[in-house]
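Reopening: structure tokens for the magnesium ion complex, inputs below.
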Amino acid sequence: SEPARPKRIKALDPDVVNKIAAGEIIVAPMHALKELIENAVDAGSTSLEVLVKDGGLKLLQITDNGHGIDREDLPILCERFTTSKLKEFEDLTSIGTYGFRGEALASISHIAHLTVTTKTAGSSCAWRAHYGDGKLVPAKPGQNAAPKATAGRGGTQITVEDLFYNIPTRRRAFRSSSEEYAKILDVVGRYAVHCAGVAFSCRKHGDSGVSISTPSSATTVDRIRQIHGSAVANELVEFEIAEKKLGFQASGLATNANYHVKKTVILLFINHRAVESTAVKRAIEQTYSTFLPKGGHPFIYLDLEIEPQRVDVNVHPTKREVNFLNEEEIIEMVCSEIRSKLAQVDESRTFLTQT
Ligand code: ADP
Ligand code: MG
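Re-run output (same inputs, fresh job):
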């Protein structure tokens, strides 16, 4: 018999393409929140409040006191690749801010109901706009989609409702809202430790208390105490190391050899962005293995700054992973610095017990 004829190849509908892309960038509520936190910090905010309902699936709201968004920019705010942070491809290599691709808000608008309320210092009122599929949409069907004047403080409030409402399979994949809330707290907690001078709060809708509350004046150790407890905060050693030839500087806080936790905790920031790195984790665990009893693990906050032209942030859609030059040498230098700090504390302890 004759072979079957091929089906004709057709372009996907742009809305389908956008929805697929959005689902790759925003895998879970925590990814949307991470982007929103980075935007708020980029906007120079010193206060950041997060409100969460149903693990972020029903509601994710973040209120900042940053520079706000110009009313004239609201119509294109959620279009893909619109950004105030990048103009040329070359800028990708020298970008100092967190976001850079203009994809976060666009993505969120394709898979959730998004409302933005914002006020700049120069505006006499705040403006509120609703978005769907990258565009302004009316608050209610039949109404005008143009941003509406409203009362509001300086800064921006982003409200994300019904995340993944149009991706039912993804929505169903979330079994427990408390699990998603725990991941949200982890993200907020990381930035709350890292962002000196910024107040953070995170609250579950309906709860009277807050889960995280860090004043803007808190020191880094205070922040760790608030979020990870005094037991950890009381046992930290400070470290710092830089090498011009490798284009990096690193600083941080690590638990000493007299203390350990059940599971390794690494708060890793590369160029002020929370990232994961199995290479860093492995090296740190190796470093501590000679100091800690079996089954004991360290807590580490590591703030790593690498010359932007040596970092490739585009290896993963969620920007969770980054690649950088001389990775092995840099990690080894950081670990050997930590090792020498641990040895110092160890020696002083031996000395103390001997006298
Ligand atoms: P990117 O951060 O990559 O530029 P986003 O989609 O995250 O892309 O944001 C698009 C633009 O919207 C930003 O470049 C910024 O100008 C503006 N913006 C987003 N969030 C805020 C905020 N909280 N405060 C002020 N401006 C914001
Ligand atoms: Mg952004």
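Residues 14-214 form a domain with the Heat Shock Protein 90 fold (CATH 3.30.565.10). The chain is about 30% helix and 25% strand. Marking as resolved unless the reporter disagrees.
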